[in-house]
């Protein structure tokens, strides 16, 4: 009887050990996704159907140069919107430096993030590039720039799993910058609209 009891205890102990090892592996094995970020194509001119009858002058962005510093993927179950961007735990180094965005679309880079569902992406532009500007643009009104940190937000729902390409829509940003004429803060104009993903 004692032998059967000891054998049962040993089998139970081995079972608990195997289960705990198995659970430990699944809990510590966080799956990651490789996300390749692309800025989608955009239209430079602000066209209205009325323009077919009475043409009018358009302010159009002909050059858009940005200095990428960091980004944040915001999960659907997290609400950390009030954090200072430099202190946010969701920060991912995205120090691409100076990039000229093309109206036909621009592939940026790939980042590794935890798999999951995300509701927003925030990209910080800073003045750490060689030209000392966070954002520089030329439109029909002239050439304008900012040295302030600018955070561009992209809203939508995105599921990160394995290897995926995520296209960021910046048409709203382009539309806002098309009519910028130097009055007011370029930072406020750029942060005042949201992109899509």
Notes on the protein architecture:
This protein is an alpha+beta fold and 197 residues long. The chain is globular. The longest helix is centred in the N-terminal third of the chain and has 27 residues. The N terminus is likely disordered. A hairpin with a 2-residue loop joins strand 6 and strand 7.
What would a concise description of this structure say?
It is built from 3 helices and 10 strands, in the order αβββββββββααβ.
Number of β-strand runs: 10
The ordered H/E elements are HEEEEEEEEEHHE
Tell me, rounded to a whole number, the average pLDDT. Answer: 79
> Separation of termini?
67 Å
Tally of individual helices: 3
Structural class: alpha+beta
Poorly predicted runs? 1-28
